[in-house]
Amino acid sequence: MAQPERIGQPDNADMAPTRSIAAFGLEVRQLRKARRLTLAQLAAASGISVSHVSAIERGAVNASLEKVTRLADALAVPVAWFFTRRPGAGPLERAHVVRAENRRNLNLLYGEPAEESGYTDWLLSSTIGGDYYFGISEYAPRSEERDEGIVVRDGEQHCLVLEGEIELVLRDEVITLRAGDSYSIRGDIPHRTSNKSDQPARMIWVNSPVIIPRDHTGDDPSAVRTGPSS
Known about the structure:
Layout: H1 21-34, H2 39-46, H3 50-57, H4 65-74, H5 91-96, E1 104-105, H6 107-110, H7 114-117, E2 120-123, E3 133-139, E4 156-163, E5 165-170, E6 173-178, E7 182-186, E8 191-194, E9 201-208
Antiparallel strand pairs: 1-2, 2-3, 3-9, 4-7, 4-9, 5-6, 5-8
Helix pairs in contact: 2-3, 2-4
């Protein structure tokens, strides 16, 4: 059986298994769109021509390790983001099933460790290329965002508390949510979440549309973090 084509990747095989050229190109395209970047903007940021970035996204050309690194830098992610392990017995399982141990850490896209964001977000969706995506947030006891600002985003958000206690702020209302409680809001309602209890908390969420800008602290109200505090 023919082996899949290899693209430029780190030496650590566990971190970066063999991926097809088409799969890598799709990852680049999905993240570029989530970052709300045009092809021209990504090309300028990476120093790669528009035509070559387009060919990479279409899976028409191989990307050298140098170009993979430049694209990762331009999209503000570690190279490992593009090479997440997705084992499975068949191609549909590998494409659509996410095992718990292989979840992607969305804090890598935010550029914020949990100590700064107040929580860790894990991507539960198999892709960020759809109309919506979902994840799980894990809050350590007494964890809060260092940024005291309240935020807004495009689209809508739906959350369910799985464990612990979450403080939800909607405009000037402060609401305590416990395991089993949920909420659904338009993203343009100013809001934030935190865990002010002495116990850990977990919350599952679904957001639409997929927006994960490179600088989520910018002035654009649509350019904010993706998880439940946005």
